[in-house]
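SEQUENCE, STRUCTURE TOKENS:
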Amino acid sequence: MPANRSSRTRRRLSTEERREQLLSVGSRLFAQSPYDDVWIEQVAEIAGVSRGLLYHYFPTKREFFAAVVRHESERMLRLTAAVPGRPLREQIDAGIDLFLSYVEQHAEGFRAFHRAQAAGDPTVREVYRAALAAQEQQILGALSTASADTADGSATRLAVRGWLSFLVTVCLDWLDEPDLGRDEVRELCARTLLGAIRA
């Protein structure tokens, strides 16, 4: 009997594991519903923790959502980091391919991240804008190492910023209605970026 009871005992999560669990639940809920429709009680119930423990990690709902957005941004940047030394078109294809892999494997987090744009809270929106700026800088850095023709000038920065909005819209639609294959989506996004930065 003691052995059976021991086998059923749950392993206590470390602080980092518990935080990761809560952020994962938050990504799922914020992907499914607007910010105002998500309740902290839902998060605690799904995660199997008390509200008090959740508030220990994230004192307010605003801070919780901001943490979800920041977490997804860091993961996105990490998983889509450029590989230096490739020609421009190869760099673009590889970068978009990595991004599409991220979108497929972390669809809920991707949706939750971009819901932050519509959040009424200025703190959350500021975290979102900072995350987009980091993406923009990562893309500009990759382009500048791949080709001298894509120097980090005002026109290129503006083109990349506009292309990021295009990329997000395409990927969100692709998740909802995957009519195009992954290769077709990559080609569409690559041609659009090339056209934008060379214009």
